[in-house]
Every structure is written in structure tokens, then in C-alpha cells.
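Q: Here's a chain of 217 amino acids. Please give me its 3D structure as C-alpha cells.
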Amino acid sequence: PPGYTRSGPALPVLYLLDAEVHYPHVTALVQFQSRYLRMPEMIVVGVPSRARGRDYVPGGEGGAERFLRFLPTEVRPRVDAGWRTAPFAVLAGHSLGGLFAVHVASTSPSAFGAYLAISPSLDRADSAALHSARAALDGDGALPRYLYLAVAEAERPGITDATGKLATALADARPAAMRWTSTTVAEENHLTVPPTALREPVKLSNEVQGRAGRERV
């Protein structure tokens, strides 16, 4: 944040995938909303990808498992060592990045405190991430604490269908230890939806930051 200093409260961190596209509008959104006290100040870490189909896609089609190991073992320790960070961290992704966010939420839910998946391509790789999410909901293992799903009104049909199936599975499971939201953003398409969709988690971020301060998430 513009007012960041080496002394003061620790700040939550937003890890943003596809930073080469989304970093300018997301940092502007966070700065604007925090300035008017609609969300806490956050450190935004942009994580670009040189090969999205390799880094973000799980299963035999991609290399999401390697990218998942890279984030908590290399990126987060470097960020935590260099800046005054709170334990709470958010992972946000769009399209294939949203697919990756759902994959991490399903298979390594404790890696981040919250997951924002915008127009997630859950129909890729034989819907592997969708199957993993359903298995997590049906099992007795850990679940993510917060999951936000958003698709555009003029979305690619495969994404709308797969994300709807995940929302139905969440509604049926009613996981007590997990908060989740699924929304359709009007008057947007797959490419234009991120700036509008990412306004919605502002309310969530306020609650999350309050709990993070009390519970040391």
C-alpha cells in the first residue's frame, strides 16, 4: 500500500495469478477500497505465468502440482521475509487461474486462507478440479475456509455448467466450517468479468481481516 512502512500492523497478502494482465486493475481496486475503509489494506503480490496451460491445469494435461509446490515453498517465504505480512493470505485467479485456485482449495485447502475463482475453467482436464472438489466435500478431510466463485452473464457454456455443478455440490453439502459464495456478474463476458467480479469479495475481506486479527489465521 502507498502508506506502507516498516513499522505498523502486519498486513494480509493477496496472491494474484496472471499478474501480467490483472495486476494494474486489482492493485487500483485494493488501494481505492482500502482508502475509503471498505476493505483492509493488503499487500498484493503478482504471480505471472509463462505457460498457463502448464502451470494452472491439474492432472495429466498440466503441471499444477509443481506450481502449487512453488507458491508455498518459494514465493510465500520470500514475501514473508521481505515484508510485514499477516498470516492470512488470499489466492485469486481468473479462467485457468480460477481453475488453479479451485484445485488448490480442494487439494491443499490450508495453503491459503481464502480463494477467489473468477470464471474458473473447471471443464478443462476432464473436469479434474471439479471432481477433486466434490471428493473433498464428500470426504472427512479439511476444506478451505472461504471460497468465492463468479462467472460472467455471457460466459463460455462449459464454464457456466461446471461452476454451477460445483455450486450445487456446495449447497448440497452445506459444509459448516466453510463459507462460500457463487455469483453471476451481469453485463460481462469471460474476458471482461474480473474487475467487476473482484469488487464483491470486499465485504468478505473485511470479515476475514477481522477474524484473522482475532484468531491469527
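Q: Can you summarize the key feature?
A: The longest helix spans residues 64-82.
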